[in-house]
Design goal:
With about 500 residues, the chain is an all-alpha fold. Helix content is about 75%, strand content about 0%. The chain has 20 helices and no strands. Helix 3 runs antiparallel to helix 11, helix 7 runs antiparallel to helix 15 and helix 7 runs parallel beside helix 18. The termini are far apart.
């Protein structure tokens, strides 16, 4: 009854916020970007909660903690430094300025306006829709593990509850409702991860005792080095590096992440948001991976061969008190619903604005655009929920596999073209297409012809990381040998950076 009561109160709060924010979701700018007036705390928490979900807490933390031991904490540190701090510093201000100048509300729309190409916009929107679906399916799977542990209820019920609740507050209040809910969910995540780590470590005699136990763990199939799971770099530093690259650099090219920069209110919000999001990532991501690093202490209770890596974290938490288990469920539910809401807004707005508008539906009014976006929110949630059920019964059982494919394709396709387009006038349409095709084909091939890949690239994680890094080379190389972009178009796009703005002397010294 305690768990159920807490859940009901939590669900009521989410729906109430969605209804309260409906007045801010009457046009496209309000529904998709919150009127570009979202402050630093809401933006930073929206960024962080969209970043971390059940995929990280249940899937990645369990799998990589088991493989690399306490060294997997490096993934959390990378998420904070590369995925949050540097992402805000490199992309934040320029994304906000140029996206407003080009009047773009989505990443595909940005490509279309920046390069003057409707085909590029449509191609990007197709990639977004296709590869966001498997990521969304992975959210349901991770959540189901914890609901099954806490309530012993059927997997399909978990999917329906999560899908319906997310749909209600997203459809009602749009981005602003999502941002406010993300803030509340972020506070729960911050407090929850600290309390849960403390409880799990205390169950093993405290931090020093747990580290000593981890140092005594051996697995000849992984490494013969004594204490390797409690070491600085773990048993496999190279593959751990690929994990850090995928989970950290990937945020730079994910539409649902970059779109947060579109909605920032002002300069002060960028400065504060950078600090807040970095600290949030350090606590949440660092905490999740740190917790997962102790997974092998529970090897007597975990059967990885039978139940997969996704069972590790739920097993670690299964002996906690009912109150703490309720906190765990709320924590992961918060993380998953915040990410799901970002995904469905990104996908539905992209399909409406970049694919349907002007291509299939002419003269689409603001009111009709918002209606289409709301309808597509439902469609996207239904498709991803059905896929989650199918995936649950198929051979693909690890959450990390689905996320690796999704992140690799999306970030590999968009990271380099988007970042270079913000800074360089020499980027060409051909280089964007080359990056789009290379990453999409590579990740699709990894799904169907994985055994034919070199051993190190058979993992979707490693393959996705390579796709991202390759894009950073492909775009400048192809741009060197393809026709230069229209000078007038490029100059108009970059004119926004030259606009003069008066600031106080604490920001910049006078003459």
């Amino acid at each position: 009854m305690l768990k159920i009561t807490i859940l009901i109160l939590y669900f009521t709060l989410l729906i109430g916020i969605g209804i309260y924010c409906r007045k801010n979701a009457t046009d496209v700018n309000g529904f998709v970007l919150g009127g570009r007036s979202v402050g630093p705390w809401l933006t930073a928490f929206a960024y962080g909660t969209s970043y971390f979900s059940a995929v990280v807490f249940v899937g990645y933390a369990g799998q990589f903690g088991w493989k690399y031991g306490i060294a997997t904490t490096w993934a959390g540190i990378g998420n904070a430094i590369i995925g949050s701090l540097l992402a805000w510093v490199v992309l934040g201000r320029r994304t906000r300025i140029m996206s407003q100048h080009l009047d773009s509300a989505t990443m595909p729309q940005f490509f279309g306006e920046r390069f003057g190409s409707r085909a590029l916009k449509i191609g990007a929107s197709v990639i977004v829709f296709i590869f966001l679906i498997p990521y969304t399916a992975s959210l349901y799977n991770g959540l189901s593990r914890l609901f099954g542990m806490a309530f012993d209820i059927d997997y399909s019920v978990c999917i329906i509850v999560m899908a319906v609740l997310t749909a209600i507050y997203v459809i009602a209040g749009g981005y602003m409702a999502t941002a406010i809910n993300d803030f509340i969910q972020g506070i729960i995540m911050l407090a929850g991860i600290v309390i849960i780590i403390a409880a799990v470590l205390m169950s093993k005699g405290g931090f020093m005792e747990a580290m000593d136990g981890l140092a005594r763990v051996t697995d000849s199939a992984v490494s013969d080095t004594p204490g390797v799971f409690a070491s600085f770099l773990g048993p496999d530093p190279l593959n751990l590096l690929f994990v850090v690259i995928l989970t950290s650099l990937g945020t730079w090219g994910l539409p649902q992440m970059v779109q947060k920069f579109y909605a920032i209110k002002n300069e002060e919000s960028i400065k504060k948001g950078t600090i807040i999001s970095t600290i949030f990532a350090l606590v949440v991501a660092g905490g999740c991976y740190f917790l997962g690093g102790f997974g092998r202490l529970f090897s007597d209770q975990v059967d990885v061969e039978a139940n997969g890596f996704d069972s590790i974290i739920p097993t670690m938490l299964s002996n906690l008190s009912p109150l703490l288990i309720a906190l765990v469920v709320i924590l992961v539910l918060s993380a998953s619903m915040s990410t799901l809401s970002s995904l469905v807004i990104a996908s539905s707005s992209t399909l409406t604005i970049d694919f349907l508008k002007d291509n299939f539906v002419k003269n689409m009014s603001e009111k009709r655009q918002v209606l289409y976006i709301r309808v597509l929110v439902v469609v996207f949630i239904v498709i991803s929920a059905v896929l989650a059920l199918i995936q649950y019964k198929s051979a693909v059982t690890f959450i990390a596999q689905l996320m690796g494919v999704s992140w690799g394709a999306l970030a590999g396709a968009f990271l380099a073209p988007f970042m270079y387009a913000l800074y360089s006038k020499r980027v060409t349409k051909a280089s964007c297409w080359a990056c789009f095709f290379f990453s999409s084909i590579l990740m699709i091939a990894n799904i169907f012809f994985r055994e034919s890949f070199p051993v190190i690239l058979q993992s979707p994680i490693n393959c996705g990381a390579v796709a991202m890094l390759a894009g950073l080379v492909i775009v400048p190389m192809v741009s060197m040998f393809t026709p230069k972009p229209d000078g007038a178009l490029v100059d108009e796009a970059f004119r926004c950076y030259d606009k003069e703005t008066k600031v106080s002397q604490k920001t910049a010294l006078g003459k």
